[in-house]
Design brief:
Blueprint: E1 16-17, H1 34-41, H2 43-51, E2 61-62, H3 65-92, H4 110-131, H5 135-139, H6 142-157, H7 167-187, H8 193-204, H9 225-246, E3 261-267, H10 273-283, E4 285-291, E5 312-314, H11 320-341, E6 350-355, H12 359-367, H13 369-376, E7 383-384, E8 392-398, E9 401-409
Parallel strand pairs: 1-2, 3-4, 6-7
Antiparallel strand pairs: 3-5, 6-9, 8-9
Helix pairs in contact: 1-2, 2-3, 3-6, 3-7, 4-6, 4-7, 4-9, 7-8, 9-10, 11-12
Amino acid sequence: LFGSNAFKNVITTGTLAGNDGRKMSKSYGNFTDPNELMDKFSADSLRFLLMSSPVMAGEDFSLQDKEVGDVARKLTMIWNMYDFFTMYAEVDGWEWNGSFEDPMDDLTNPLDRWIVSRVHQLNTEISENMERYDIPTAMKGILPLLDDASNWYVRRSRRRFWKSEDDTDKNDAYRTLHYVLLYLSHLLAPFTPFLAEELFLKLTGGELGESVHLRDWPKAGKVVEKVLFDMARTREIIEKGLAARMFKSESEQQIKVRQPLQRLQYSGPQLDGVYEVIIAEEVNVHQVFSMNPEGRPLGDDSSDSSLSNTNVVLDKTITPELAREGMMREVVRQVQNARKQAGLNVDDRIHLELVTHDPELEKAIDEHTDTIATETLASELITVGSAPAEGYTADVKVDGVELAIALSKV
């Protein structure tokens, strides 16, 4: 009418279908009352599912209650990380210094540099796609990031939060996890406003303002591409190593992850030692070597850097020594379960007694006494062959052999 466009951008939605695949309709009654869905799973979960669905790109979408529940379950990873952080921060008395600046230049641990790079990378993806009003694509990387943060970064960093670990590295871990959660509260604000607000206020105590929704969109900080690539390659080698454990043929059997093996070899350029340590711990092998695709030791002139070309060879020979180490790992798992059943806190030291009449299990415990004590926070000597002490007791089996566990808080 006036010689110019009435709008700059248009979002065209598709049609919502009900749980039976037909167009959502009151007369069909083919949908759950939205208030019931929000009461059961949260308004954020319903909002997140709808905003990330094809309906925001003009396509039809069938709203299923189960999918709202799946989103709710995945979003709880944020609170799992927050609970983990606060649990250890309270034990250590760690306090936030009030800064919300990119910590990358101060970080040395590749895990910290990787997860900070990942959230900065996510910011760029969200920002670029939101500028194009492509909301589903903007949200595509959020849940994978939460999975990376919870099931890789936090899980791999768990030991770093223990009091017995290096204090400098531990402080970097606290600082990184707080920064990542605080950064996520900003990135999630347009998509899960209630969750983002609660997380922001819990992390800051109001020191950065009364609401995350009154804050500016955060700048995309530094992204270290080499760390992202090396970690992706590390995780691919781990995935292939674990797959090799599960592979079963006429000459080989499946081997549970808790059973240590001697060595793993991978093709392509040599990874830094810290990544090889991660591979060794995740695949549960003693040694990790690089090799070229022909099997000879890797030379400095190798240029094979593609993930898809990485080959992994796993030595599945189990010596008696490795078998006993595997028994020790199972003992540690059973003691950790007993700690939980006894209601102990994560930092409680215990007196631990282990009783078995099997010579091989007794030898395994005797060979790895220090490791068992360290892993289970047992500050008093582990005894084998005596009657259990007073306290929490449990009778378990390790590789089919009976073991009595007795523990009490020191």
